[in-house]
Amino acid sequence: MTLSIIMPVLDEAAGIEAALRALSPTRARGVELIVVDGGSHDGTPGLARPLADRVLTAARGRALQMNAGAAAARGDVFLFLHADTQLPADADRLVLDGLSRSGRVWGRFDIRIDGGGLLRVVAMMMNTRSRLTGIATGDQAMFATRAAFDAVGGFPPIALMEDLALSARLKRMGRPLALGARATTSPRRWREHGTLRTILKMWRLRLGFFLGADPEKLARLYGYRY
Fold it and tell me: Where would a tag sit more exposed on the chain, N or C end, judged by fewer CB atoms within 10 A?
């Protein structure tokens, strides 16, 4: 199997070059890297172009951008990576070998938040919750075979919680492959709004989503720029 990494971006000029350079060894092993821009105004696509195999433009919205990337990808397996999340060094091998050996069709990594204190507890809770429920979040670098992704219709075109919705769809095909290797994500979301406040807000938003609230309204409540 071959792997394509798909990264949705929006105004990530401050960190996009470092994020893509970290993936250079993975590209050298033959992994395809696709960046999908949602209408940046800070020159993100130009900075990304020398460091990716393809840079695409799509309608703004993380779900729409990731679906566009998947439609253009050549790999047998898609890995969806946020711009502020860094994969473990051998992520491509872990994904492809893990899927091949387990017979599963999708999965995710455990997560580490780049910070100490309460953020360690947050990451532990996220990993534990994911193992118990079989639901993954975008921060955990979700991946799926092309066949499984196409079979469930990709990400639903919603403004927020597209990762939870895709997890629920894929879970009908089997539980995820839970890789213990940790992807490291930025603490910027928690630091910007306060760790405890962000935790409480995310619990509220997830509860609203599972109770059928409109994702557009939830996105506005969150102040989500996508």
Answer: N
Question: How far out from the chain centre does Cα 130 lie?
Answer: 14
**Cβ 32 vs Cβ 73: under 8 Å:** yes
Residues of the chain falling short of pLDDT 70: 190-191, 193-201, 203-213, 215, 217-226
Residue ranges of domains in the chain: 3-222
Span 58-98, pLDDT tens digits: 999 999 999 999 999 999 999 999 999 999 999 999 999 99
| Contacts of residue 15, Cβ cutoff 8 Å, sequence gap at least 6 | 83, 84
What pLDDT is recorded for position 186?
Answer: 87
Task: Specify the pLDDT at position 134.
Answer: 93
**Alpha-carbon distance 58 to 161, whole Å?**
19
In terms of Cβ atoms closer than 10 Å to its own Cβ (0-12, 13-18, 19+), residue 116 is: exposed
Residues near 170 by beta carbon (within 8 Å), at least 6 away in sequence: 105, 106, 144, 148, 149, 152, 176
pTM above 0.70, yes or no: yes
Give the CATH fold of the 3-222 domain. Answer: Spore Coat Polysaccharide Biosynthesis Protein SpsA; Chain A (3.90.550)
Cβ distance 78 to 144 under 8 Å? yes
Residue 64 has which token pair? Answer: 């729409």
